[in-house]
Amino acid sequence: MANGNKLAVFNFQTAIDKRLIQRPNKPKAKLEETVREVFAAIEQKGDKALFDYTLKFDKISSNILEISKKTIDESDRYLSQDLKDAIVQAASNIRKFHENQVEKLSPVETAKGVLCWRENRAIERVGIYVPGGSAPLFSTVLMLAIPAKTAGCKEIILCTPPNIAGVNPAILFAAKHTGVDRVFAVGGIQAIGAMACGTETIPKVSKIFGPGNQYVTKAKQIAQIEYNTAIDMPAGPSEVLIIADETCNPAFVAADLLSQAEHGDDSQVILLLDNELLAAKINSELSRQLEKLPRQKIAELALENARAIVMNNIDECIALSNEYAPEHLILACKNYGKVAEKVVNAGSVFLGNFSCESAGDYASGTNHTLPTNGYARAYSGVSLDSFIRKITFQEISEEGIASIGKTVEVMAAAESLDAHKNAMKIRAEFIANNKNKQS
Amino acid sequence: MANGNKLAVFNFQTAIDKRLIQRPNKPKAKLEETVREVFAAIEQKGDKALFDYTLKFDKISSNILEISKKTIDESDRYLSQDLKDAIVQAASNIRKFHENQVEKLSPVETAKGVLCWRENRAIERVGIYVPGGSAPLFSTVLMLAIPAKTAGCKEIILCTPPNIAGVNPAILFAAKHTGVDRVFAVGGIQAIGAMACGTETIPKVSKIFGPGNQYVTKAKQIAQIEYNTAIDMPAGPSEVLIIADETCNPAFVAADLLSQAEHGDDSQVILLLDNELLAAKINSELSRQLEKLPRQKIAELALENARAIVMNNIDECIALSNEYAPEHLILACKNYGKVAEKVVNAGSVFLGNFSCESAGDYASGTNHTLPTNGYARAYSGVSLDSFIRKITFQEISEEGIASIGKTVEVMAAAESLDAHKNAMKIRAEFIANNKNKQS
Question: Does the interface ipTM go beyond 0.85?
């Protein structure tokens, strides 16, 4: 790193060292024991355990879990008109994008008399977790409740940690506006445990969605593995990778890097470019913008692990990006449409100089719940599909038995599964006997 | 249970006791330690560790992992023409069904100047596990390699345990016919570890598919949680639930119950009906058919935990089935089309008297990799989607900044994320300045 650059610049025009895009290998915290203890207590003591742990972990003494309908209804009194309008517009865009994801499924006659198809069924009851902390992440409510509602989930519940004043009204307003059925003031491990096990007040759900700290992440993992509860996806720190060339606006790029860096000191920030001079310009913009930032300290810590990597050309940049598989990918380069075709591994992609990541975080309409930590190699972000099962159906006629009967019998016999064979054989014989009788 | 019935009959026409459809709560075997040890050895010693564990666990001394192209090519010499024809027909049906799952994705202008869309990208490298044991499950190769190939995965690898004679030719033939790129003779924990960690010979994959015993299941879990490798879905014993009324053929129903029971002594077999006399008829068919079954012992053990439950009507049956969420659901009742509309939780559904489960296990075209253990409440079976990511894209024009800029700024500020707000603000100001210059 040279002369006080905010972003360390590496020139790798000759060879790429893949270590440059390795994510830090965090030591795995041993949280299982705490999570298991909390889950066991919830199974035994139900709501009482939730109150106990809310006092212990959150230092909040409470004896009410469910936020009343009245409190939810009145939440809009505490929001500015600007914020209400913003939430309503964002919700509308998100709804449009996710409504467009309803897939029309058509049947296929795979062989004569063998009709196969799929039908969409929404998951009946889902749970949304919205973390507390310094800021109320009401945007998460929009990103999870809107596709859940669009999918047709029958019951959508939401858990969020209480603070002394109760639950933040922006979260309640977002919940009300998106059709969340019930809101519970409980957070952390105990919230996930309540949704995985069920208590007197909080119903057990089939799938849990939402971000959280390392305790919440571990609790979701245990819910998935030991409590038969599905989860949205594995979690990790948020990430952005930007590919920029001389057509970019360095101030915009710096602003986008910072909007990722302010998330947390473990945020991953990578800039790939084809031009070392540009790295210097972006670095000087970074310094300028960083000074005025309220979350300057956090952003500076994140930038310590961030890097700018200079490659020979944009093709090399996109190859390295695919290797890294970023959660967010910004293409601030010419012919970004062509470059986008080469994207193989990414969560969400932002094209051109005006598509900032924060647009997608809030209001473009795409979902902001995306795969981090390289999971984009195998996972998609949350979508309507995350709230739906596609059940397969098949209807086989007598003609269908004639079409595939022998195939099934031969394969079952070769796998030494004679009862499988018999189930087909008994039908084929029945049909043959009937025909004989008729003739 | 009365008079030597193979299937215990419970009459619950007055009240349903949900305990009747509870799955046994198996004690969780402590296998983590073994799995972690094997994975650590693979990370350290690579291929050598695979040979060591193949000798230790499978009692096979081997120093070759990859099956040669020649061996794969020559596999068809060892198969009867009937079996080859059966595999080819089944593959064709499965291919038709999964090709029909390619989703056409269209862009949406969520707000003026804000264009959002999704694009399909196949997972680049996937791994298929095919268990060994008494019978070669070549049908699993078809069910996993065909959608992988249809999705466009660049590399499909397959691991299966060796026996003294090598790898079963039916598995090799199925692999060759479906476009599997490489086959490795390694099984159990060490196969999953190899695909999760990568070795000199076996490449690390992004997602692992396939069934297996409790060791394989635990290894897939550890791969998912600790080695950033996705897996198809959590596993449990296979299940069938049959809903039957007087229009069913008792011999067919008995054959279907047995085809599930022969899988293993932990197979789940449930029959729901609206008529106690019918239960008796099916029970007598069961006794008759069971006698001739090669896997009679296994099937009898499974039937010990199986049950027939008599309800008041088919509506009650379907409600109870939705509660149970079976992997396979057979509707052997009149108006099965109407009944099917009420199915909410199930993996795959078989309609009418001629749609036996074994048709779907092998050759109807639907996928036989399905959610067990109640996971059908939240998971779909394997489909083309299991091999694809849907990446979101957004392109925002200057007009788009005008549409959603304020919304993004207001929401980011309310979440105390000022850098997120700035990323939008800097663009809005740039556009305003440009306009001023022009005017």
Answer: yes
